[in-house]
Every structure is written in structure tokens, then in C-alpha cells.
Automatic annotation (TrEMBL):
Main location: cytoplasm
Record's keyword annotation contains Cell membrane: no
Organism: Microbulbifer bruguierae
HAMAP family to which the protein is assigned, alphabetical: GrpE
Family annotation (CDD domains): GrpE (cd00446)
Function: Participates actively in the response to hyperosmotic and heat shock by preventing the aggregation of stress-denatured proteins, in association with DnaK and GrpE. It is the nucleotide exchange factor for DnaK and may function as a thermosensor. Unfolded proteins bind initially to DnaJ; upon interaction with the DnaJ-bound protein, DnaK hydrolyzes its bound ATP, resulting in the formation of a stable complex. GrpE releases ADP from DnaK; ATP binding to DnaK triggers the release of the substrate protein, thus completing the reaction cycle.
Protein name in the entry: Protein GrpE
Gene giving rise to this polypeptide: grpE
PROSITE patterns: GRPE
């Protein structure tokens, strides 16, 4: 009996040993499966890394595109402002040269005796020319600055002298030597004025 058991045990052990030790083919297949699994894991992690890298690149390119669009909009806005300024102030130099003609017409009117019969036609001609000239300047958005009696404004007026005067508030324009002009709100020439001061 003991002999039979030992043979049975022996057969069982051999069968168990056969089950525990795989054949070389099985071992090779298991190794290949393990390598394939490792390769799949490595491929997945490589894909994940590549996807993360592509996300970073996409964010960088989006940022670059937004910056480029902002630069184009800024350049367009600057160009539009330059065109507007050219339209508004393109005649500034010409108008600065024409303004003294108005001054000369006003001086001529102030020196001629308008009561004298012989001078009436000349005075009328100069007045019409002066009015026509001012109307033409007005068409080009030129405004006359004639601040007599107004408070002194250093942005628009140039004080030639100060005169003590108790009848008006200090820093009031008493007299205008030369009128000033503005083109579309920008100063072409300041008005030259006499300003009051406290006596």
C-alpha cells in the first residue's frame, strides 16, 4: 500500500512538475506577450507625451495668432488716425502762411479813414475781401480767436504785456494786438494780447 501511495505521489509530483515548468514554446510565447504589453505601455506613454507636446504647441500658436491679430489691428488703427490727421491738418502749413494776409487786410481797414468820401469804395472793397477771406478759412474749419474781454488762457493766448487795471478782474484780456487762429481745434497761432493785472 505504501508502495502504491508512493508511486501515486510520484506520478502526482511528476504531473505537478510538468505543470509548473512550461515548455520552451510556452515560455517564448509568454515572453513575447510580456514584451508586447510593455511595448504597448511604452507606446501609450509616448502617445500621451506627444499629445501633451502638441497641446503646448497649439497654445503657443494660438497666442502667436492672437498677438499678430492685435498688431494688425493696432497698425490699421494707427494708419486710420494718420489719414484722419492728414485730412484735418494737411493744410496747416498753407493756412499759417495765409493768416498774415488777413492781418494785413485788418491793418489796412484800421488805417484808412472810412468817413472820407474818396476812401469809401476802397474800404468797402477791403471789407468784402476780408469777409470773403474769413469765410474761405471757415470752410476749412479755421476759427478766429479774438479774446478781448475774456479771461487770459495761456494755451490760446500769448501775453505781450501786463497793464495795471482796477476796472476788470486780474488776468483779463484788455486788448488784442493780433488775433489767433485754430484749425480743427489745434492752435495755428496764439492771439497776442495785453493782460490786466491788479493795480
Amino acid at each position: 500500500m505504501a508502495k502504491e501511495r508512493s508511486e501515486e505521489e510520484q506520478i502526482g509530483e511528476e504531473a505537478h512538475a510538468e505543470m509548473e515548468t512550461p515548455s520552451p514554446e510556452e515560455q517564448h510565447a509568454a515572453e513575447e506577450a510580456l514584451e508586447a504589453e510593455l511595448a504597448a505601455d511604452a507606446g501609450e506613454s509616448a502617445l500621451e507625451a506627444e499629445v501633451a507636446s502638441l497641446h503646448v504647441q497649439l497654445a503657443e500658436h494660438k497666442d502667436m495668432v492672437l498677438r499678430a491679430q492685435a498688431e494688425v489691428q493696432n497698425a490699421r488703427r494707427r494708419a486710420q488716425q494718420d489719414v484722419e490727421k492728414a485730412h484735418k491738418f494737411g493744410l496747416e502749413k498753407l493756412l499759417k502762411d495765409l493768416v498774415p494776409v488777413v492781418d494785413n487786410l485788418e491793418r489796412a481797414l484800421s488805417t484808412i479813414d472810412s468817413e472820407h468820401e474818396a476812401h469809401k469804395a476802397v474800404v468797402e472793397g477791403i471789407e468784402l475781401t476780408h469777409k470773403s477771406f474769413l469765410d474761405t478759412l471757415g470752410k476749412y474749419s479755421v476759427e478766429v480767436i479774438d479774446p478781448a474781454g475774456e479771461p487770459f488762457d495761456p494755451e490760446l493766448h500769448q501775453a505781450m504785456t501786463q497793464v495795471p487795471n482796477g476796472d476788470v478782474e486780474p488776468n483779463t484780456v484788455l486788448d488784442v494786438f493780433q488775433k489767433g487762429y485754430r484749425l480743427n481745434g489745434r492752435l495755428l497761432r496764439p492771439a497776442m494780447v495785453v493782460v490786466s493785472k491788479a493795480p
